[in-house]
Amino acid sequence: MENIIVRGGRQLNGTVRVEGAKNAVLPVIAASIIASEGKSVIHEVPALADVHTINQVIKHMNADVEYEGNTVTVDATKPLLTEAPFEYVRKMRASVLVLGPLLARYGHAKVAMPGGCAIGSRPIDLHLKGFEAMGAEVHVGNGFVEVSTNGRLRGAKIYLDMPSVGATENIMMAAALAKGKTTIENGAKEPEIVDLANYLNKMGAKITGAGTETIKIEGVEKLHGVEHSIIPDRIEAGTFMVAAAITGGNVLIENAEIEHIRALVSKMEEMGVKITEEGTGIRVIGPKKLKATDIKTLPHPGFPTDMQSQMMALMLQAAGTGVITETVFENRFMHVEEFRRMNAKLKIEGRSVIVEGPVELQGAEVAATDLRAGAALILAGLVADGYTRITSLHHIDRGYVDITGKFARLGADIERVNQDETKEIVEKQEV
Ligand SMILES: CC(=O)N[C@H]1[C@@H](OP(=O)(O)OP(=O)(O)OC[C@H]2O[C@@H](n3ccc(=O)[nH]c3=O)[C@H](O)[C@@H]2O)O[C@H](CO)[C@@H](O)[C@@H]1O
Ligand SMILES: C=C(OP(=O)(O)O)C(=O)O
Q1: Residue 86 — pLDDT band, cuts 50, 70, 90?
Q2: Does the C-beta of 123 come closer than 6 Å to ligand 1?
Q3: Mean pLDDT computed over every residue of the chain
Q4: What mean pLDDT do residues 91-101 have?
Q5: 114 in contact with ligand 2, CB cutoff 6 A
Q6: What's in the keyword line of the UniProt record (predicted)?
């Protein structure tokens, strides 16, 4: 088993390049199985555990998948199986994104029901309601959800009770081949939705309004394989922005789209961080003293929940009291307990955490409870006194490519070691 060991106290300086977005590449690879003609060639694919999982899911269904360099090629022209077993969905909830494409192309899909996870119960009722509105029958039983339709799906008006990212994507993909026009109201507006819509449109779909709350999809008969480059990962970019800020460093984050992270930029600026656009990247300069602020997570363009834990790490170094409110997921505060092990003063009040800063963080053994919590613990470790050992790295590997190497090249004292080497390091520290 591997751990990450960080020793705090180094300022980060230099340049780091952001990968393609995890949350864009997963739906795009899922969508590639709708193409009944031609190959799909997807560039800027990050080498993440989640990407391997989605590739395995569609391989299991009989698609040919090649992954070389940062390019994934999918040939889904052979007849496909329409099932995804629990072994994949258990590893990654986004496996449910094959429901829409399979239903659209084959009129049938059967996928293991995703369970809850560390950040909340995460139901998929809105995905299913959307399919039902388009004429599909939904059956849930024995740990599976099965959706089917006789003939083509029918276009429908679908109002989402909340702007769910996954539901918007699944419905958009299903509607791409439906008969007639589908309108999604109160749809998600995330940049990853726009990337998926652009991809589907290149494949021959007719989608307008992606990036706004009303998305219109005129169904077509079939889609074909195309070439596409994935947008940069705004959450990876944000994580490095916080790293620069928390260490008082100066980092150029390349391949980052500032328009995708306006809410984060604005909050970090309020805290005293200097942020400027530079070429195709963002330069972040940490101040001598950070100021506390309040943060409330919201669907895009609001403050992203996937940056909440990293910003908690930053707030722990800021002077004053700040309140972080999580409105997207009901249970995304598992990292609070881990931060407390590092001497953080945090109080949970309902859906908010009160952060009193600045605190002198102390190195400790902590566990990544989800992927962003894991990143946040590394960030805290960068400024903690002594060594921090982070365990449960499989979470971090879902969403970050070589995070240890990237931080080390910016000057952090960090390494990824196996458990035994970890013991040695900790023992050395104790002596
Ligand atoms: C692979 C991917 O893109 N993951 C992102 C996606 O997850 P995901 O697509 O799962 O997130 P959603 O936007 O669907 O979830 C938002 C909220 O809606 C609820 N909900 C969702 C669907 C549904 O049918 N019923 C329901 O109640 C969820 O429990 C949650 O409380 O968006 C989240 C919110 O920005 C991000 O944190 C995740 O990183
Ligand atoms: C919650 C996240 O991802 P997922 O929806 O894949 O669990 C995330 O990226 O922070």
Answers
A1: confident
A2: yes
A3: 95
A4: 94
A5: no
A6: Transferase
Please give the ipTM for the structure prediction. 0.99
pLDDT tier for residue 431 given thresholds of 50, 70 and 90 = very low
Average pLDDT score over residue span 110-116: 85
Which candidate, 366, 420, 371, places its Cα nearest to that of 399? 371
Q: Which atom of ligand 1 is nearest to the CA of 190?
A: 35
With cut-offs at 50, 70 and 90, classify the pLDDT of residue 118.
confident
Sort strands 413-418 and 2-7 into parallel, antiparallel or unpaired: antiparallel
Confirm if 105 and 136 have CB atoms less than 8 A apart.
Answer: no
Question: For a pLDDT cut of 70, what percent of the chain falls above it?
Answer: 97
pTM for the whole thing? 0.97
179, 155 contact by CB (below 8 A): yes
Which region holds residue 422: left if phi is over 0, alpha if psi is between -120 and 50, else beta?
alpha
Residue 200, token pair as written in the block: 């589907």
Residue 70 and residue 45 in contact, taking contact as beta carbons nearer than 8 Å:
yes
Ligand 1 lined by 25 (C-beta under 6 Å):
no
- Closest by CA position to 231, among listed 32, 95, 43, 66: 43
Q: Which atom of ligand 1 is nearest to the CA of 125?
A: 24
Q: How many CB atoms lie within 10 A of CB 317?
A: 25
Q: Which residues of 166-200 are buried (b: 16+ CB within 10 A; e: fewer)?
A: bbbbbbbbbbbbbeeebbbebbbbbbbbbbbbbbb
> What are the strands of the beta sheet with 71-75, ordered from one edge?
64-68, 71-75, 39-43, 227-229
Whose Cα sits closest to atom 2 in ligand 2?
306
